[in-house]
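Collaborator request, handled under Task 6.
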Amino acid sequence: MTRVSGPGPGVREVVVTDLEMTDPGQLRPGAPPRVEATFVRAGRPAPELSRFFYRAVGGDWYWLDRLNWTYEQWRAWVTAPGHELWTCWVDGVPAGYVELDRRPDGSVEVAYFGLLSEFAGLGLGGWLLTRAVERAWELEGTRRVWLHTCELDSPAALANYRARGFVPSGTSVEYWDTRAPSPGPWRGSR
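Structure tokens returned to the collaborator:
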């Protein structure tokens, strides 16, 4: 359940795929969701909100790198120049999120993206990714929007990225000890 330096007992080789768009015309918008949803920007830095979504969305997909971050590390992340946190809400509750990281070189990374598990299958993923990519291209000087995913991510992730117009730009291999299941959205949920 943690990233390790190389092969070994209980270690899984995981392919990481980088994807990109280099022109806003590449975006193929997703269909409207089957539920009423809103796309809302966090208007002020919110370390607690970023951490909530990271764990609630990524807990099932081995998002582990930031689980032990301190409040100060989360605050540094959400206050960094170019960071934007956008959320998706359905029926007054959080359904998903995206964090954009604009870089000085004109690239915007879709750093984190996903839905809480109970909102999968409602058409929100394509819609939310569309809104995120539209926002990334609205930012002044954007020349490239990119992200990465891996085999441990949601089975729907790569298909959604490709359906929206992202194209693969490279792959790499990481090694993960996956003998224990991903911890889930909260301690003790698995």
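The cover message to the collaborator said: "Residues 124-138 form the longest helix (15 residues). The helical segments are 47-58, 71-79, 124-138, 157-163. Please let us know whether this matches your experimental observations."
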